[in-house]
Each structure stands twice: as C-alpha cells, then as structure tokens.
Amino acid sequence: MFNGGVKEAAKMLMGLDSMAQKKIIETIRKKDPAMAEKLEANLICMEDLQYLTATMLVGLLRDINLETFGLALRTIDQNITKKIMDMLSTGIKLDIEDGLKGKPRRVSEVEQAQTEILKIVRQKMDMGQIVINPDGDELV
User: Fold this and answer.
1) Cα–Cα distances in Å, from 137 out to 51, 53, 121?
2) Which of 72, 74, 77, 90 has a CA between 20 and 30 Å from the CA of residue 48?
C-alpha cells in the first residue's frame, strides 16, 4: 500500500470507534506489523489537536514539555497553530513560543518532537482523557 493508501485507510479507521480501530489494527499487526505502525501513525496528526476542547488541550500540555510542543508546531499551518494557541493562557503561550519561535532547528528534530507529542496524545486517547472531534459536535 503506498503512503496515500495508508492515509486513506487511516481516514476510514477514524470513522470507527476506538475498540473497532484497535481490533482491526491488531489483526493487521499479526500479518504486517510495519503496516499496523504506519496506520497508527496516520490515525492522528498534529493538525488534529485543533479539534480538542481547551480543557483537553490544557490537560495534554500538563504531560508535555511546552518548548517541545512549540517545536512540534513549527511545520503546522499557521491558522491551525493560531487556533490552538488561542485556547491557551498567556503564560502557557509564552513557554510554547520558546520552541515555536526559537533558533532554527532541523526538520528531523521537529518530526521527533511531533512523534513524542502524538505518542502522548494516543495514550491519552486510549485512556479516554482526549477525544479528537473534527465534526465539532458537543461532547457529553
């Protein structure tokens, strides 16, 4: 499956509840562990953080180095970054901006920061502490 196919497959998986996603990914993992990893990596991305509520975002940031979070935002669309930053208090924004607007860094460092952040996001999703809700429906 080429990379576009992985992204499309991940989009289809995102339409399922988390238990169904896990079951399918575990079935795939038995036959093709690398493919399962690619699918998991594409289930969520940094851009999806714009769909968190302010409370979920702040909860996430408690477990993340804020400068690393800022570094991870460097390659994200500026409108999305602004939307995320607008949900935060001034103090948190300043700490994030140290990473966001700091000295130039290698793309590989930004990608590593994104990988670290998304790993924590996935853990919090598995625990039910975070829900990515792109439809904008109210959560109850």
Assistant:
1) 10, 11, 20
2) 90
